[in-house]
Design brief:
The complex is a heterotrimer.
Chain A: H1 18-21, E1 26-27, E2 34-37, E3 46-48, E4 55-56, E5 61-65, E6 73-74, E7 79-88, E8 96-104, H2 123-132, H3 145-148, E9 158-162, H4 172-179, H5 181-195, E10 199-205, H6 209-226, E11 231-236, H7 245-253, E12 268-272, H8 273-285, E13 291-298, E14 304-309, H9 314-317, E15 329-332, E16 339-340, E17 354-358, H10 377-381, H11 388-396, H12 400-405, H13 416-420, H14 427-491, H15 498-503, H16 507-511, H17 519-543, H18 554-570
Chain B: H1 2-25, H2 32-40, H3 54-63, H4 75-86, E1 101-105, H5 115-119, E2 125-126, E3 134-135, E4 155-159
Antiparallel strand pairs in B: 1-4, 2-3
Chain C: H1 16-38, H2 41-64, H3 68-72, H4 76-87, H5 94-109, H6 122-133, H7 135-138, E1 141-142, H8 150-158, E2 168-169, H9 172-182, H10 189-193, H11 196-199, H12 207-224, H13 230-249, H14 257-262, H15 266-273, H16 284-304, H17 311-328
Classes of the chains: A alpha/beta, B mainly alpha, C mainly alpha.
C-alpha cells in the first residue's frame, strides 16, 4: 500500500463534475475550417512545409520544428490549405498568431500511417519519433514531451501519470480514463521505457471512482500480459490543486520540488493521462497528435466531452452544446486557472482541455475589491505555503525585489488565495502582473547591459582607430617633413631667404583630411559624390546575381515565391531572373 | 573642572582617531554613486540629455550640474528612480516621452556609405562599404543617432508594438464604484 | 465578453463583513454577563460608541473620497467601537467614550490609511489616550451590587445625575494594587481574595463571569476559523507563566494566575485584541511570540507598573515590534524547507 503524503493549503470548491461526466466521449463533426497555429509560445515555433493551395491529408506534417523545444505540427483533417496567415489565437490578450488554415474536404482521410516499431528501439529514437509526431503535454502547459522524456544524466525512478483533474467542471481526463484506460496504460509503459523508470504510479482524485476502477483493471491486465510489475493506480484525496504537478508528486512520493528545479532532479517525472494516450496512439498506430478530448460545460443545454480536431474554431465547438441565452462569456480551461476568451473565433489548440460557458448566475461578478486586512486566509490556503498578502503589498508598492524575496516565482497561480480572500482581492492577477514586470525588466536590463558593453567596446575601438590614424598621419607627416627637409637642404645651396622657411608647410595642414576644405566646395562635392554613389549602387544591384540560386530545395523555392508574392502585393518589382552563367559586374 | 576638560579631550581624541582609521581602512575607490546612477540610466547612448552618452550624464548628475529629468528613454520611471536614489524631487520630463522604437533601413534606398554604422553608438548596424546595411532590431536601442548622418534618408523609426511574445499582464484594475 | 472580472471565477463565500459580524457575535456572551452584573448601561455605552464610530468613519470616508456604502457596512468600525465600550468603565461620561472612539477611528485608523493599514490597534490607542488624559475618570468602576436604577445610570453617563464618589469602588485589580502599596508586609493576598464582597469566587465578584463570557466567545471564534489558536494561547501562557512563577515564589505578595487571567481585560485581550489581524503578527511563529510577550508585558505593567491593567499598553508595545517579528519568522515554503 503506497503511503500518501499531504500538502498544506488547498481549497475545496464545488466540483460541478456531474454535469459533463456521465456521457461518453463523442466525436465532434468536422468544422468548416481548422486553424492550426504554428506556435505554442515564443520558444516553440514551427516553419510551414506546405503552401497555400496544397492538398493535405489528416496527419500530414504541415510544419517542421524550429529549435530544440518545438515539435512537428500536423494537419488535423484532410482538405486544402487555404491560407497561412495571422489568425486569432486563444490567449487572454486576444492577439493573433501565424497559423495554417485548412478547409476540410469532408473525407477526414488519414495519410499513410506507419506504427513505430518499438521492440528494439532505443530511447533516443523513440523521443525523436514522438517529437516528429508533435506530442506535447496535454495537461495544460503544453511542454514538449520529447524534452520531458529526456532526463539526460539524471536517473528517473518513478513515472507519475496525472489523472487527478482537480479543477472543477473539467471531466475530459475522467472520461478518457473510463473509456480508454488500456491505451493510457500502454502509453505509460512506453514512456517508462523511454525515461528508464522503475515504477509507474497513476494518481487519480477519489471523486472519480469509475475512472479509478477502470485504470486499476487496465493496469492489472497489463501486468498479467507483460509480466512487468510496478504500475499502481492510487486514489488521492480530492483537494484542489492536487492535480498540480508539484502537489501530485508531493502526495505520491513526499518529494517537494521548489521553483527552479524540475522533477528529474529528484528522480520523478509526471505526465498527463492525455499525453500518455497520445504517445500510445503515435507508437502503436503511427498517429501524430491531431485531436484531443475537450469538455464543453457550464451554461449549455448539453454538457459533455468531445473528441475534436486540433484547430477547430471555438465558435463552432460551442454549437455542439447549445449555449443558453444568458451566456456572457466563455472560459478556456477551468474556473480557477483558466481565462476568459476575448473572442470565440480562436481555435482549440493542443492544450485546450475545456470550454465553460459562463453566465452571471454561474460566475457572478465579484464584489468590489476591499483593502487587505492581513487576515492570513490566503497564506493558509496557499499550496506552496507562501505569504500571498506580503506579495500583494509589495506588488502594489512595485518593490519587485521584495516580491522575489518572498518567493513570488514559486507561485503556481492556482488561485487558492483569491478564492478565500474575504476582501475579494484578485491576488493571482497581481502576481501575474508582478512576474511579467520582473521578466520584462530583466530583459530590459540585460539588453541595456549588453548595449553598454557594445558602446564601451565601440568607444575603445574608435579611440584606437583614431590613435592609429593619428600615428599614421604623424608618420606620413614626418616622412613628408623629412622629404621637405631634404629638398630644403638641396635648395640650401640657393640663397637662403624667407621663402625656404615658408615652403615648409606645417606638417599638420598637409595631412589634413579633405573635409577641412571650404564648406561650399565640400557640400557640392559631397552631393555629387552621393549622386554618383547612388547610381553605382543601383547599377550594382541590378547587375548583381545572387550567388546561391542553384539547387534550391522546394522549401526554399516556396519561400522565394512567397517573398515575391509579398513584393508584388507591395508594388515592388520582383528581382529579375539572372541566368547563372552571367558574370557579376563587380 | 580640569578632570572634565581632560575627559572631553580624551573622548574627542579617541573618536577622532577611530574616524580617521575608518576613513583610511574603508576608503572606497571611485565614486560608487556614479555607478548607481549609471545603472539606472537606460544605456541608449543617444545624447538627448545633452551629454555624449549615459556615463557623462551620470557624472554630471552626480556633480549636481545636470537635472534628473533630461532622459526621455528612461521615462518617468527613470526620473522617479533617480529621485529616490539621490533624494531629489521628481520633476516632469523636459522632453516628450516617446514609445520605444527601433530603426529600420529601407534597403531599396541604401547606398552603403557606412555613415550610419559609424554613428551607431552600440554597434547595432551590420554592413560594410558598398554593401547593404541592415539594423539588428534586437540590438537597437532607439537612440535615433543614425537618422541625421544618412545622406539618402533611408532610415525610419518603427514603434515596437505589443504582440504575443512581449505581451505583459496588466496591473489589475477592478471597478469598485460606478461613477457615471 | 465580460472584461471586468478575472480568474479565478469561483470564489468562496467570504467577505470582510462576515468576519466582523462573527467577531461581534462572539462578544455577545461577555456583553450579556456584563449587562446582567453591572446593569444595562453598558448597552447604552455600546450604542454611543457605535454611532460615534460610524459617524467618524463616514466623515473620514467622505474626506478621503472613498465609496461610503462599501466601507461603512464592513463592520470593522463597529468592532472597534464595541471593544472601546467594553474596556472603558461602564459609567464613563458620554463625551469620554465619544473622544476615545473618534480618536480610534479618525486618527488611529483613517489617518494611517483606513481599513487594513493601521499599525496599532485602534481600540487600544483609544484606551491608552483616555487613561493617560483622564486617569481619574477611567478608574471609576462601579461597585458590584450597587443599587442604582437604569435610568439613573443613563443619567450619570449623560451628566444629568450627580457622579458620586461613593458610586465607584475599586476593581479587583485596583484593590490588589492599593492593598499591596498601603499594607506592605501586613497583608496577604489570600485574605484579600476572601473578601467575597469584592472578589467573588476567584477574580472579582461578578467580573469573572464577564471574562468567562469572553473566553467562551473566543473559543467559538477559534472553532469557526476566524482566529487561530497561536496568539490567544501564547498570551494566556505568557501571563500564567510569569504570574504562576511569582505566585509560587511568594504567594503572599502575588495573586494566583487564575486571578490574573480572569480579571481586567486579559481574556478580552487574549481573544479579541491580540488576534487583530491588521496590527498583529501574521506568521504562526510570530503570533506565538507576539502573544507571549504581550502576556508577559501585561502582567508586568499590572504588578510593577503604574496602571491597574496593562493589556492595552502591552499590546501597543508589541504592535511596534510586529514588522520585525514578521520579518524574522517567515516560514519555509514548499520545496525550500530547511532554507529560510
Amino acid at each position: 500500500m503506497l503511503q500518501l503524503f499531504k500538502f498544506k493549503g488547498g481549497v475545496k470548491p464545488e466540483s460541478h463534475k456531474q454535469e459533463s461526466a456521465n456521457l461518453p466521449i463523442r466525436t465532434a463533426p468536422l468544422p468548416t475550417r481548422v486553424i492550426i497555429p504554428l506556435r505554442l509560445n515564443s520558444l516553440t515555433t514551427a516553419t510551414p512545409t506546405v503552401a497555400v493551395g496544397d492538398a493535405v491529408s489528416k496527419g500530414q506534417c504541415i510544419a517542421s520544428a524550429e529549435g530544440r523545444m518545438s515539435t512537428g505540427i500536423h494537419a488535423s483533417t484532410s482538405g486544402q490549405v487555404i491560407a497561412i496567415e495571422d489568425a486569432p489565437y486563444p490567449h487572454p490578450s486576444g492577439f493573433s498568431a501565424r497559423s495554417v488554415i485548412i478547409a476540410p474536404d469532408g473525407e477526414d482521410r488519414w495519410c499513410e500511417l506507419t506504427p513505430f516499431d518499438e521492440t528494439n528501439a532505443d530511447p533516443q529514437s523513440l523521443r525523436d519519433y514522438l517529437r516528429s509526431a508533435g506530442i506535447v503535454g496535454l495537461g495544460g502547459a503544453g511542454f514538449p514531451s520529447h524534452i520531458k522524456l529526456s532526463p539526460g544524466n539524471a536517473r528517473i525512478d518513478t513515472l507519475i501519470i496525472n489523472g487527478a483533474e482537480c479543477e472543477p467542471w473539467i471531466t475530459c481526463d475522467d472520461r478518457l480514463m473510463r473509456e480508454r484506460a488500456t491505451a493510457i496504460i500502454a502509453g505509460a509503459r512506453i514512456m517508462r521505457r523511454v525515461v528508464g523508470a522503475q515504477r509507474i504510479i497513476v494518481g487519480i482524485e477519489d471523486n472519480k471512482p469509475e475512472a479509478i476502477a477502470a485504470m486499476q483493471a487496465a493496469a492489472a491486465a497489463e501486468g498479467k500480459t507483460n509480466g512487468e510489475a510496478g504500475i499502481s493506480v492510487v486514489a488521492v484525496p480530492t483537494r484542489y490543486p492536487a492535480g498540480g504537478e508539484k502537489q501530485l508528486i508531493r502526495v505520491l512520493t513526499g518529494i517537494e520540488i521548489p521553483f527552479g528545479k524540475l522533477g528529474f532532479h529528484y528522480g520523478v517525472q509526471c505526465f498527463n493521462v492525455g499525453t500518455a494516450y497520445a504517445v500510445h496512439r503515435a507508437i502503436a498506430f503511427g498517429e501524430p497528435l491531431v485531436n484531443r478530448v475537450v469538455t464543453l460545460t457550464g451554461n449549455v443545454d448539453q454538457a459533455g466531452n468531445w473528441e475534436v480536431p486540433i484547430g477547430m474554431p471555438i465558435s463552432e465547438f460551442i454549437t455542439l452544446g447549445t449555449a443558453k441565452a444568458d451566456t456572457d462569456r466563455y472560459l478556456m480551461g477551468g474556473p480557477m486557472m483558466g481565462f476568459s476568451l476575448p473572442g470565440i473565433d480562436a481555435p482549440l489548440i493542443k492544450t485546450s482541455n475545456c470550454i465553460i460557458a459562463g453566465s452571471p448566475k454561474l460566475f457572478p461578478p465579484p464584489a468590489p475589491e476591499m483593502p487587505c486586512i492581513r487576515c492570513g486566509e490566503c497564506a493558509k490556503a496557499c499550496p506552496i505555503e507562501l505569504q500571498p498578502f506580503e506579495l500583494y503589498w509589495h506588488t502594489r508598492a512595485k518593490t519587485f525585489g521584495k516580491t522575489q524575496e518572498y518567493h513570488i516565482f514559486d507561485c503556481i497561480e492556482c488561485g487558492c488565495c483569491s478564492f478565500v480572500c474575504p476582501s475579494r482581492i484578485p491576488l493571482v492577477q497581481y502576481f501575474r502582473f508582478a512576474k511579467s514586470e520582473i521578466w520584462a525588466r530583466e530583459k530590459e536590463k540585460n539588453a541595456a547591459d549588453q548595449a553598454k558593453a557594445r558602446f564601451e567596446w565601440k568607444t575603445a575601438r574608435d579611440e584606437r582607430e583614431k590613435a592609429e590614424k593619428a600615428e599614421k598621419l604623424a608618420k606620413a607627416a614626418a616622412a613628408q617633413a623629412a622629404k621637405k627637409a631634404a629638398e630644403a637642404a638641396a635648395a640650401a645651396a640657393a640663397p637662403a631667404d624667407g621663402t625656404a622657411a615658408a615652403e615648409i608647410p606645417p606638417p599638420a595642414t598637409a595631412a589634413l583630411p579633405p573635409a577641412a576644405a571650404t564648406p561650399v566646395d565640400a557640400d557640392a562635392a559631397r552631393k555629387a559624390a552621393i549622386a554618383a554613389a547612388m547610381e553605382r549602387a543601383r547599377a550594382q544591384r541590378e547587375a548583381a546575381a545572387p550567388k546561391n540560386t542553384d539547387q534550391l530545395t522546394p522549401a526554399q523555392q516556396r519561400e522565394i515565391a512567397a517573398v515575391d508574392a509579398l513584393r508584388q502585393q507591395a508594388g515592388i518589382e520582383p528581382v529579375p531572373e539572372i541566368p547563372a552563367a552571367e558574370e557579376p559586374k563587380s | 573642572m580640569i578632570m572634565s576638560i581632560a575627559i572631553m579631550a580624551l573622548g574627542a581624541i579617541v573618536l577622532g582617531a577611530a574616524l580617521g582609521y575608518a576613513s583610511i581602512r574603508f576608503k572606497v575607490e571611485g565614486d560608487p554613486l556614479v555607478e548607481k546612477i549609471e545603472a539606472i540610466l537606460p544605456q541608449t547612448q543617444c545624447g538627448q540629455c545633452g551629454y555624449p552618452g549615459c556615463r557623462p550624464y551620470a557624472e554630471a548628475i552626480n556633480k549636481g550640474e545636470a537635472d534628473i529629468n533630461l532622459c526621455p528613454p528612461g521615462g518617468m520611471e527613470g526620473v522617479a528612480k533617480l529621485a529616490d536614489l539621490l533624494g531629489r524631487e521628481v520633476k516632469p520630463l523636459e522632453a516628450e516621452e516617446k514609445p520605444k522604437a527601433v530603426a529600420f533601413i529601407d534597403e531599396q534606398t541604401c547606398i552603403g556609405c557606412t555613415l550610419c554604422i559609424q554613428a551607431c553608438p552600440v554597434d547595432a548596424i551590420v554592413g560594410a562599404a558598398k554593401q547593404m546595411h541592415t539594423i539588428v532590431a534586437d540590438l537597437c536601442t532607439g537612440c535615433e543617432l543614425c537618422l541625421p548622418p544618412c545622406p539618402v534618408e533611408c532610415i525610419t523609426m518603427e514603434t515596437l508594438t505589443e504582440n504575443l511574445d512581449n505581451w505583459k499582464w496588466k496591473y489589475p484594475i477592478v471597478a469598485i464604484k460606478q461613477v457615471a | 465578453m465580460s472584461s471586468f472580472s478575472t480568474p479565478p471565477y469561483l470564489l468562496m463565500n467570504a467577505s470582510v463583513q462576515r468576519v466582523m459580524l462573527q467577531v461581534l457575535a462572539a462578544l455577545i456572551p461577555g456583553i450579556a454577563a456584563y449587562a446582567w452584573l453591572f446593569g444595562p448601561v453598558i448597552l447604552v455605552q455600546l450604542a454611543i460608541a457605535t454611532v460615534t464610530a460610524l459617524a467618524g468613519e463616514a466623515l473620514m470616508l467622505k474626506l478621503r473620497d472613498k465609496p461610503m456604502s462599501l466601507f461603512l457596512t464592513d463592520g470593522s468600525a463597529v468592532v472597534t467601537a464595541w471593544l472601546i465600550a467594553l474596556t472603558f468603565p461602564p459609567l464613563s461620561p458620554w463625551w469620554l467614550v465619544v473622544t476615545g472612539t473618534l480618536f480610534a477611528i479618525v486618527i488611529a485608523k483613517h489617518l494611517y490609511g483606513g481599513l487594513g493599514q493601521n499599525p496599532f490597534n485602534p481600540a487600544m490607542i483609544a484606551f491608552a489616550v483616555c487613561i493617560v488624559s483622564f486617569p481619574a475618570l477611567m478608574s471609576q468602576w462601579p461597585a458590584v451590587g450597587l443599587k442604582v436604577t437604569f435610568l439613573d445610570q443613563i443619567g450619570i453617563v449623560f451628566g444629568t445625575f450627580p457622579r458620586l464618589d461613593a458610586l465607584s469602588g475599586a476593581t479587583p485589580l485596583d484593590a490588589l494594587k492599593t492593598a499591596l502599596k498601603l499594607e506592605e508586609g501586613q497583608f496577604s493576598v489570600a485574605a484579600l481574595l476572601a473578601n467575597q464582597e469584592l472578589f467573588g469566587f476567584f477574580a472579582g465578584r461578578g467580573w469573572e463571569w464577564v471574562t468567562a463570557g469572553y473566553l467562551l466567545g473566543g473559543l467559538w471564534l477559534w472553532q469557526r476559523g476566524i482566529i487561530s489558536w497561536h496568539a490567544p494561547l501564547s498570551f494566556i501562557a505568557g501571563m500564567s507563566l510569569l504570574a504562576g512563577g511569582l505566585w509560587l515564589y511568594n504567594p503572599a505578595q502575588f495573586a494566583n494566575p487564575l486571578f490574573h487571567l480572569f480579571s481586567g481585560g486579559a481574556m478580552l485581550g487574549a481573544f479579541f485584541i491580540v488576534t487583530d489581524p491588521v496590527s498583529g503578527c501574521t506568521t504562526p511563529k510570530g503570533k506565538l511570540i507576539f502573544g507571549f510577550a504581550a502576556g508577559l508585558l501585561a502582567y508586568i505593567i499590572r504588578v510593577f507598573g503604574g496602571y491597574p491593567d496593562g493589556v492595552a499598553f502591552a499590546v501597543l508595545l508589541m504592535n511596534l515590534c510586529v514588522p520585525l517579528i514578521d520579518m524574522y519568522t517567515q516560514p519555509a515554503i514548499f520545496g525550500k524547507k530547511g532554507q529560510p
